Amino acid sequence: MPDLTDFEERIGYHFQRRELLTRALTHKSYSHEAKTDSVRDNETFEFLGDSVLGFVVGDILFHRFPTLDEGALSKMKAYLVSATSLAAKARLYGMGEVILLGVGEEKSGGRKKDSLLANLFEALIAGVYLDGGITLARHLIERSFVHDIASLNEQDLLFHDYKTALQEQAQGKGLQLPEYNVVAEEGPDHDKRFIVEVKVGSRTARGEGSSKKEAQQQAAKHALDAFAV
């Protein structure tokens, strides 16, 4: 087991019960290969973490946007806790570097898989909740999503799927369908940033994100802003 002191520094939380952190970072492929009951995987932690995360994010949105209806709040929540979003949080903390993986999963690139990293972040939330309670788990969630939540605009309810909205706008104006291209990749693997350019007719716009999909959405948003001018 690697020294997790640096990892705890990155997430801003130090476990009192280190076995909870170890379990949160143990993928089922590792426990299966260990073939001992003393090594337990993090699948049930993922279940609990998903519930804690959903509750806290829902509570934050409910109080931040008191005038929005259920549909709008649900779309915001789905955007924030999507697999892409959670995987980005896991990469931010370097979780792919500390997860315990089986040999097969390691060889197949498990440390970089969005689905695996998203589940890993949920398991971490569960570990913090079990170790320190809901208040400390909430603190970690708030720190992790502070920039995402701050960027949400109460007046802009298209944020959850700018690409679809842009495609509809282009078709309505008789223009070609939007074309997306990655023009740059910046930063280390655990904190990669993508810059994507979208072209619609004679107009172009760029967006940035921790994944190609997120960068495409941001590029589409900026293109929609240009259409509105």
What report would you give on this structure?
With 229 residues, the chain is mainly α. It has helices spanning 5-11, 18-24, 28-34, 43-64, 70-80, 83-92, 103-107, 114-132, 134-150, 162-172, 212-228, and strands spanning 179-186, 193-200, 203-209. The protein has a 3-stranded antiparallel β-sheet. Strand 2 (193-200) and strand 3 (203-209) form a beta hairpin. Helix 2 runs antiparallel to helix 8 (114-132), helix 4 crosses helix 8 (114-132) and helix 6 (83-92) crosses helix 8. The longest helix is centred in the N-terminal third of the chain and has 22 residues, at 43-64. It is globular and about 65 Å long. The mean pLDDT is 86.
Tell me what portion of residues adopts beta-strand conformation. 5-15%
**H/E element string?**
HHHHHHHHHHEEEH
Number of helices: 11
Structural class from helices and strands? mainly alpha
- Biggest sheet strand line-up: 1-2-3
Approximately how much helix is present in the residues?
Answer: 55-70%
Shape label: globular
How much is the radius of gyration in Å? 20 Å
Determine the mean pLDDT.
Answer: 86
**Biggest sheet overview:** 3 strands, antiparallel
Termini separation: 56 Å
